[in-house]
Amino acid sequence: MLDTQSSGGAQRIFARIGRNWGLYVLLLPAVVLLLLFTYKPMYGVIIAFKDFSPAKGIMDSPWAGLKYFEKYFNSYQFSVTIKNTLIISLYSFATFPIPIAFAILVNQMRAGRFKRVFQTVTYMPHFISTVVVVGLMLILLSPGNGLIGAVYRLFGAEAPNLMGSASLFSSVYVWSDVWQHMGWDSIIYIAALSSVDPSLYEAATVDGAGRWHKIRFIDIPMLIPTAVTLLILRVGGLLGVGFEKAYLMQNNLNISGSEVISTYVYKIGLISSQYSFSAAINLFNTLINFSLLLLVNWVSKKYTEHSLW
Amino acid sequence: MEAATNLKLRRKKPGSGDKALETLLYIWAALMLLIVLYPLYFIVIASFSDPSAVAGGKVWLFPRGWTIDGYKELLKHSNIWIGYRNTILYTVVGTAIGLAVNVSAGYALSRRDLVGRKALSLFFIFTMFFNGGLIPTFLTIRDFHLYDTFLVMVLPFSVAVFDIIVARTFFRTSIPAELWEAAQIDGCGNLRFYVQIVLPLSKAVVSVLALWFAVGQWNAYFNALIYLQDKNLFPLQLILRDILVTNQMQTALGTGEAAQIALRLANLLRYSVIIVSTLPIICFYPFVQKYFNKGVMIGAVKE
Questions:
Q1: Quick check: A270 contacting B, CB < 8 Å?
Q2: Which residue ranges does the record assign to the ABC transmembrane type-1 domain (chain A) (predicted)?
Q3: What are phi and psi for residue A162, nearest 5 degrees?
């Protein structure tokens, strides 16, 4: 089958669609589900510009213009949520070389049982649910009766209350993420390294390159395309800290450091039922992320020829 | 040939620096294993230990003050077992629906003779970066009367665009176009070709996606938190949240002997519930790990 871009006429196109009607049947469930539950809510974002009341419905609620956006920009929570979100996501952005280093080190290990066990074990935390990981943290990091308390007492010191500190929240959040995902996140880099032509290493050895030189001049350049793609995707999520973990880790003691946009959207929207206000904050967040993604992808395409599409 | 001998000559005198690096590498690896495994091991031994010994920092390598009260307590909490049952149902049904929806879409999009392929791909990929957000989605679910139903946990959010892309990449690289052409000549339609020829050839990608989906369903709590109210529909993770996170604060309050006993049981329950809820995934995982890796690699192939 040739994918003829040229000519055709409407009739021929319809003939080609008709011949492959079965493929459209296969696509139908996914398309319908997306239309109903993803695209229909996109139309629903107009409630961000309305004084929405469930009794009146989306259509008949009166317009409010940019009232709710202004309300957010002028609120005390604006700077708090933006600041916390940015701190956590920039912090976690800064840890992106960890899986790369991890992959390079794993690649240096001799193939064998130890390497296999090592990989199996270090990928494992990825499969533990967020609820259990946060539960683990609450147990282990409790200064009173947790593991960390016992370790500090061993040295005659008092443990900091890691789960109840606003200023330490970002560190706890990011490093527990590193613990949980560094092994798993390295898989994609390990895969990239395993596709390196072995003759490259042999040639390097002949030229007198040591381990370090091979890493510097073969491994790292091989990983750059993968790293760039993943980096672009992460920039697209720069103003978004996942709801699930942040919400679970929140408590009255750390709230000034742990209230991020996603948790605030949830509280305003579903706990205090300010639908329009919540939708406005959410839309603002999505738009920033989407523009960042487009911008970075454009810059990357221009300067490095790596891009998402 | 010359290069080969040269190689051997060089290999014969490894720098002493390389030896030291090698040692450092394995020390690092051992440390990593410890960091990953010890917290999990600690919970296992804590679940069999007297909570006061755990709190006193006496439990390091082996259980102290052996007890299985935590597991006995677990049996009394019927909501945990209802949650367990619900999670199994959501996982099985959700995974079946997810596979049917995403693998089929992935196959259709992999075919280069699909008219409107580019536009359709955009239709899917756009949703990865833009969405209506929490409230508009919530209102939509309510409008469809899906709020607080079994169905909301398995149907509306079963489209996973990333999985569609993985499936599409797999089909493109492993189902040759000639196969379809031959089948077509024999009078085989698209649907029959998909079910009888493509799917049996695609066990690798189908099992990877099934595993991803199943693990995701098992661990998810967000949709349940937003869309469920009836405790009899709660999945395990939401029950776990109550036990591990929400009640953590409450049980810490209160004094007196009764409160002490309650606190003891609450602590034990916390350890044992972590074990019981995570065990299925941890036991199951090493057997399927190679499929996960394969999936990541399929997904990483860029066109």
A1: yes
A2: 81-296
A3: -60, -35
Are A240 and A261 in contact by the 8 Å Cβ rule? The answer is yes
Residue of B49, B135, B226 to mutate when probing chain A, most A C-beta within 10 A = B135
Nearest C-alpha neighbor of A102 from the set B301, B40, B31, B297? B31
Please name the residues in contact with B16: beta carbons below 8 A apart, sequence gap of 6 or more: none
Angle between helices A275-304 and B117-129 (to 10 degrees): 120
Q: Compute the distance between CA of residue A284 and CA of residue A276 in angstroms, rounded to an integer.
A: 12
Is there a contact between A279 and B135 if contact means CB atoms under 8 Å apart? Answer: yes
Which residues of chain A are within 8 Å of residue B133 when distances are taken between CB atoms? 41, 45, 265, 279, 282-283, 285-286
| pTM as predicted | 0.89
A15 plus A149 within the same structural domain: no
Q: Can you give the pLDDT of all 303 residues of chain B as single tens digits?
A: 444 444 444 444 445 567 888 899 999 999 999 999 999 999 999 999 988 888 777 888 888 888 888 899 899 889 999 999 999 999 999 999 999 999 999 999 999 989 999 999 999 999 988 889 999 999 999 999 999 999 999 999 999 998 898 899 889 888 888 999 999 898 899 999 999 999 999 888 898 888 888 988 999 999 999 999 999 999 999 999 999 988 755 555 556 777 778 888 888 899 999 999 988 888 877 777 777 666 666 665 544
Mean of the per-residue pLDDT values for chain A? 89
Place of tokens 């996606």: B209
Domain that includes residue A24, residue range: 2-45
Determine which helix (DSSP H) or strand (DSSP E) holds A14, and give its type and residue range. helix A9-19
- With CA atoms as reference, the chain A residue closest to B249 would be A251
Q: Could you tell me if A19 and A111 lie in one domain? A: no
Tell whether B130 lies on the interface with A, counting CB pairs under 8 A.
Answer: yes
- List helix spans (H) across A141-216: 147-154, 169-194, 198-206, 211-214
> pLDDT digit string (tens) for A43-69?
999 999 999 998 898 889 999 999 999
Strand partners, B247: none
Max alpha carbon distance in chain A (Å)? Answer: 84
Q: Could you tell me if A25 and A156 lie in one domain?
A: no
Q: Cα(A137)–Cα(A126) distance, rounded to whole angstroms?
A: 15
| 3-class state of residue A63 by DSSP | strand
Find residues 145-164 of chain A whose CB sits inside 8 Å of chain B: 145, 147, 149-151, 153-154
Q: Are B18 and A210 in contact (CB under 8 A)?
A: yes
- Domains belonging to chain B, first-starting first, are 1-67 (no CATH), 79-235+284-299 (1.10.3720.10)
Contact check, Cβ <8 Å, A27/B297: no
Cα dihedral B157→B165→A30→A26 (10° resolution)? -150
Inter-chain touch A127–B270, beta carbons under 8 Å? no
Put simply, whether A40 touches B (Cβ < 8 Å) is yes
